[in-house]
């Protein structure tokens, strides 16, 4: 059983929403058509589900997440935005509460890196997808938060400690590169793999990126210290480095994401 490490504080929820903008929003999804039924597994604050809802105006988008606070925020936002074809509910990725072959498209983003049995989750996603339907997963390529110019050595070692914590909790920060094999093992066909790159250069992007990185560490600070993975001094050095980076005029950063899609074969 895995334990989710980032929590659901308001800072973390905002981080997810800002990150969504920085990595290019819903671009990891294919074009959708009006009558489709779509499922977002591990939807967080529902940022993707809400963004795609107008594309499936005669269909439905459902988002599920294990954390109640994420679902509450997703519902609040959807109500505020007047979205009537989006629904959010608490649920577990390994046992989705939907009938077989319900959805046309089922996707997850930044979920499989946190679960102890990604193959079981993918199989469950396949179960609820119609024959001929599409399954998509998107995860960070290793070190996605530390590809910066100039480089940030203290941040890099703090992120390595965070990856260790994630592994100790049953996750796998390196899952991105394994997605294709997992999709194949799960029996999907027409598998396509891509790397999506978002380059960040404007002062505002750099500021948001640095703030996100800093919040990522902050959310796990207690656990990192408790497990002896990082000292307070090392954490402070990483925070300091993020802060300096956020105002460097020529700073650059990039997000690299592994994306894979596959089709559920007809019986
Ligand atoms: C990093 S967030 C990504 C949220 C969203 N997909 C996005 O791209 O912004 C991962 C989410 O997966 C949820 N999660 C983790 N393990 C889960 C599980 N076993 N079943 C359902 N949701 C899970 C967490 O609560 C969290 O909201």
What does this structure look like?
- By secondary structure, this protein is α/β, with parallel strands linked by helices.
- The chain has one domain (10-263): Vaccinia Virus protein VP39 (Rossmann fold, 3-Layer(aba) Sandwich), CATH 3.40.50.150.
- 38% of the residues lie in helices and 23% in strands.
- It contains nine helices and eight strands.
- Strands 1, 2, 3, 4, 5, 6, 7 and 8 form an eight-stranded mixed sheet that branches.
- Strand 2, helix 3 and strand 3 form a beta-alpha-beta unit.
- The chain is globular and about 55 Å long.
- The chain starts with 9 loop residues before the first helix and ends with a strand.
- 42% of the residues are buried.
- The model has no long low-confidence stretch (mean pLDDT 95).
- S-adenosylmethionine (SAM) binds at residues 4, 6, 16, 20, 42-44, 47-48, 65-67, 70, 92-93, 109-111, 114-115.
Largest sheet: 8 strands, mixed
Radius of gyration: 18 Å
- Helix coverage percent of residues? 25-40%
Q: Helices and strands: which structural class? A: alpha/beta
Look up the CATH topology.
Answer: Rossmann fold
- The domain tally reads 1
Q: Give the overall average pLDDT.
A: 95
* CATH superfamily grouping: Vaccinia Virus protein VP39
What is the percentage of strand-forming residues?
Answer: 15-25%
Distance between the termini: 32 Å
């Amino acid at each position: 059983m895995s334990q989710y490490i980032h929590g659901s504080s308001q800072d973390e929820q905002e981080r997810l929403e800002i990150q969504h903008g920085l990595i290019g929003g819903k671009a990891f999804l294919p074009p959708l058509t009006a009558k489709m039924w779509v499922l977002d597994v591990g939807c967080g604050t529902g940022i993707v589900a809400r963004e795609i809802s107008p594309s499936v105006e005669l269909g439905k988008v459902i988002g599920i997440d294990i954390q109640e606070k994420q679902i509450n925020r997703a519902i609040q936002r959807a109500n505020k935005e007047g979205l009537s074809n989006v629904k959010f509910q608490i649920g577990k990725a390994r046992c989705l509460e939907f009938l077989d072959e319900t959805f046309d498209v089922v996707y997850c983003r930044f979920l499989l890196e946190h679960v102890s049995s990604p193959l079981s989750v993918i199989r469950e996603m396949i179960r609820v997808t119609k024959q001929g339907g599409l399954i998509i997963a998107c995860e960070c390529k290793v070190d996605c938060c530390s590809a910066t110019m100039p480089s940030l050595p203290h941040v890099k070692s703090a992120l390595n400690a965070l990856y260790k914590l994630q592994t100790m909790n049953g996750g796998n920060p390196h899952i991105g590169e394994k997605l294709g094999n997992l999709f194949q093992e799960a029996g999907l066909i027409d598998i396509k793999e891509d790397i999506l790159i978002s380059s960040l250069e404007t002062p505002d992007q750099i500021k948001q990126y640095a703030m996100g990185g800093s919040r990522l560490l902050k959310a796990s600070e207690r656990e990192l210290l408790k497990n002896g993975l990082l000292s307070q001094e090392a954490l402070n050095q990483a925070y300091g480095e993020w802060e300096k980076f956020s105002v460097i005029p020529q700073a650059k950063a990039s997000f690299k994401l592994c994306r894979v899609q596959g089709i559920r074969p007809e019986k």
